[in-house]
Amino acid sequence: MTTTAEPTTAEIGKARVRKEDERLITGRSRYTDSITPPGTLHIAVVRSTLARATITSIDKSEAEKAPGVFGVFTAADLGAEEVGLPCAWPITPDQKAPQRPVLAVGRVNFSGEGVAVVVARSAAAARDAAELVEVDYEPLDPVLDMEAAAQDGADLVHPDLGSNVSATWIFDSAAAGTGGDIGEAIKTAEADDDQIVVKRRFRQQRLIPAFMEPRSCVVDPTGEQLTIWAATQVPHILRTMTTVTLGVPESKLRVIAPDVGGGFGGKIGVLPEEMLCVLLAQKLRKPVKWTETRSECMLTAHHARDQIQDLTITAKRDGTITGLDVHLYADMGAYLGLVGPGVPILGAFMFNAIYKIPALKFTCSNVFTNKTLTDAYRGAGRPEATFGIERIMDELAVELGRDPMELREQNWIAHEEFPFTTVVGLTYDTGNYEQATQRAMELFDYAGLRREQEERRKNNDPVQLGIGISTFTEMCGLAPSRVLGSLDYGAGGWEAASIRMLATGKVEVTTGASAHGQGHETAFSQIVADKLGVPFEDVEILHGDTQVAPKGLDTYGSRSLVVGGIAIVNAAEKVVEKARKIAAHLLEASEDDLEFANGQFTVKGTDKGKAIQEIAFAAFMAHDYPEGMEPSLDSDAVFDPENFSFPHGTHLAAMEVDTDTGRVTLRNYVCVDDIGNVINPLIVEGQVHGGLAQGIAQALFEEANYDDQGTLVNATFVDYTVPSAADLPSFTTETVSTPSTTNPLGVKGVGEAGTIASTPAIVNGVLDAIRHLGVSEIEMPTTSQRVWRALQVAKGHSVQQTPSTTHSPGAGLGSIDPNNPKGEVQ
User: Fold this and answer.
1) In the predicted model, what is the mean pLDDT of residues 615-627?
2) Distance of alpha carbon 224 from its chain centroid, rounded?
3) What is the pLDDT of residue 656?
4) Contact 326, 310 (CB under 8 A)
5) CA distance 632 to 48
6) For the segment 788-804, what is each residue's pLDDT rounded down to a tens digit?
């Protein structure tokens, strides 16, 4: 039996206000751009205005004469013509990986690529001088359509590679021995009147992470050690990759990520500008600083999503799914990001979602285009997969004339079937989809809204109601290392922690999980307070500095709690065991006769005891401690999980669509998530709300648009819509708990859940509102204009085509056939 998670200890489960918020909201925080060592020089990057061109000349003379300018440098000037930034995920042995330069050498491959760098005594002087650098180009036609680029004979982004396809990665359940043959499933369904084949194409548009704090880097070469401050999610990985890229000994590098204002995966990379700061600091022997402008950030910080998804699902007429075939094109942009090639592959293991699908094949082709590179963004492959399967489940329900929720329930893994090994070979340890769904439907009033929907349809109400459904699960806590190794990922999945018991009984905890807004300092303090029995206020969490916390693999993929948190638990247990030995010695008792609770060691059956703080002081004094034992309670731990964790949930959206204007309104949103045991409900609620905002934004608002010359046309917040609180309703959120069995806290992770689940819920709701009017597909974002156009096409009206975009043929509204608005069905 599963129940809503209840607090089991003094701190775990308590809704504590985040301890880090006081400094963050009162201006006492310290971001990278706040750091300016004495004598700092500032840089500005001269960026290409063309998406694809040959560089014929660079004239630096006017810029070099500008006030405050220290120098203007190209890759050749820095001796960096052969320096290439790392890609840590070669998904196939033959993956094509062009060198990603710190500055362009001979040609540019996307609009915004760095061509030269100006060094000046102020940031303003550097930016002004950058405008004086004259770069002559010989323009080339850009390669922008990923599907066309993948075809034989296409113009090549990198001619020396021989193809625009970087790699094609395939998973086949029949070949892997984890399921049936999808080819046979399709062949059987096509020949059997009692079965159905449904094919659909979905488009994942290109997004921009749009974090609050622009990227920034400061490098100080003072002394023998280089100190790098960076607005990054991955200080430990940045240190290692700086060594790999530039050859600086890792022991000579200290990387500090101070307060970081959001990341969402957008700060997971190793940047050309970071490497430029290192190169220039070494060359000039002065501190060097770079902070990007917002438009520069949107133009050149990596983008995300950007997939074409072709899905084929087979099922019996009674609704039982028999197979799923997935083919993706994924746009890598002009180069490969740090983990960009592997992002679609993470989705490969989630297309089966919560369903018992007996046969599955997944094929992904990663394609180069002359656009900004793509890489991880909140959910990283899992939102794309959830969108695909949840959209096609609705399409299947329509073709079978079934209620979409009933169809899902028929095919999902029942709670009594856990642990369950899926068609892709993953073992889901726990879950209860029935519980989460039932509660969500109660909070949503699913039956009542269905009745209202029917009434509006009968009355031809100009404002129609749609109900959007998304059930989901995800693999999070990016680990274990052995599994990542089998996928050729360039790192492990472990995390490290250490606990220092100070003489006065206070506790310092170092963690390799580096926060960028998640509330680590609060949640980790709650865990340590409970495990050691010390006051919450007596715990300090130290992170984000490779000299303070020397070991770690950083923060992404909802791994902070389920991996980093467990490393802290294990370190705390080691502290307790060390303290037990000293306590037994001081109390003249056997270790086996000691009980530990609420920070107190007590001899069984007596009132004799010692608090752990007393023992910490005794260890510090070292006057009396057991023979052969070091006088210290300090302990380290590294945790490498045995499995991923698998949170899940049910998300429901009530969408209203004005059929006269196309206006879309999100009326109500309910979600019930199972994230295992909850450490801090306030942090969970904040994470869910933030995730929902990002997932809903993809469905309704956000899209990075390029013109036919490869220029990003909405590189400011005037043109790129990031929703505010005024654009979203109040959310109804709850959690239920089937504790994970893969870690001692029973936690599963929550950081990405809202983003993963919400996008298909919204789109399914919009389509559900107007499907009866002949509309079966609207490309995201489902703006009023796109909805209105789809309604006009469904009515048989001629509508003017929108301006040319970089979307592939067949992916957009222009491909809707009014005589067959539902697409191909067999």
Assistant:
1) 94
2) 36
3) 98
4) yes
5) 57
6) 999 999 999 877 765 54
DSSP conformation class of 565: I
Report pLDDT for 815. 32
Per-residue pLDDT tens over the stretch 161-204: 999 999 999 999 999 999 999 999 999 999 999 999 999 999 99
> Residue 486's closest CA among 543, 542, 399, 424?
424
Q: What value does the mean pLDDT of the chain take?
A: 94
Find all residues with CB under 8 Å of 769, minimum gap 6, and list them: 453, 464, 465, 466, 655, 656, 657
Say if residue 3's pLDDT is above 50.
no
400 and 773 Cβ atoms separated by less than 8 Å: no
CA neighbor of 211 nearest in space, from 269, 264, 271, 274: 264
- pLDDT digits 0-9 by tens, 81-101: 999 999 999 999 999 999 999
Residue 427 exposure: Cα atoms within 13 Å on the Cβ side: 10
Confidence grade of residue 816 (pLDDT, cut at 50, 70, 90): very low
Query: For residues 247 and 727, what is the distance between their CA atoms, to the nearest angstrom?
Result: 48
Q: How far apart are CA 691 and CA 680, in angstroms?
A: 17
Question: Closest by alpha carbon to 410, among 356, 353, 348?
Answer: 356
Q: 195 and 399 in contact (C-beta within 8 Å)?
A: no
DSSP 447-489: HHHHHHHHHHHHTT-SEEEEEEEEEEE--BS---HHHHHHTT-
Q: What is the 3-state secondary structure (H, E, C) of 602-656?
A: EECCCCCEEEHHHHHHHHHHCCCCCCCCCCCCCEEEEECCCCCECCEEEEEEEEE
Distance CA 391, CA 653 (A): 14
Instruction: State how far the Cα of 263 lies from the Cα of 271, in Å rounded to an integer.
Output: 14
- 616 vs 175: CA distance, rounded Å: 57
Residues recorded for the chain: 826
Q: Which residues contact 621 (CB under 8 A, 6 or more apart)?
A: none
Q: Indicate the Cα dihedral angle 337, 338, 344, 349, nearest 10°.
A: 180
**Rounded (10°) angle between helices 272-284 and 235-246:** 60
Claim: this prediction has a pTM higher than 0.85: yes
Contact predicate 608/587, CB 8 Å: yes
Question: Which residues are within 8 A (CB) of 111 and not within 5 positions of it... i.e. 6 or more apart?
Answer: 47, 48, 49, 50, 51, 299, 370, 371, 372, 710, 711, 712
Tokens 């036609």 appear where? 141
Residue with tokens 């004094």: 621
- Cα 33 to chain centroid, rounded: 24
Tell how strand 226-230 and strand 216-220 pair up. Answer: antiparallel
How far is residue 404's CA from residue 381's CA, in Å, rounded to a whole number?
24
User: Cβ contacts of residue 750 below 8 Å, gap of 6+?
Assistant: 558, 561, 647, 673, 675, 684, 687, 688
Half-sphere exposure (CA, 13 Å, Cβ side) for 102? Answer: 25
Rounded CA separation 449/451 (Å):
5
Q: Copy the structure tokens of residue 487.
A: 């996928």
| Interval 264-280 mean pLDDT | 97
**What dihedral do alpha carbons 339, 344, 346, 349 form, nearest 10°?**
-160
Looking at residue 807, its pLDDT comes to 44
Residue 654: what are its φ and ψ, rounded to 5°? -100, 115
How big is the chain by its Cα radius of gyration, in Å?
28
Mean pLDDT over residues 678-692, rounded? 96
Task: List pLDDT tens digits, range 475-533.
Answer: 998 879 999 999 999 999 999 999 999 999 999 999 999 999 999 999 999 999 999 99
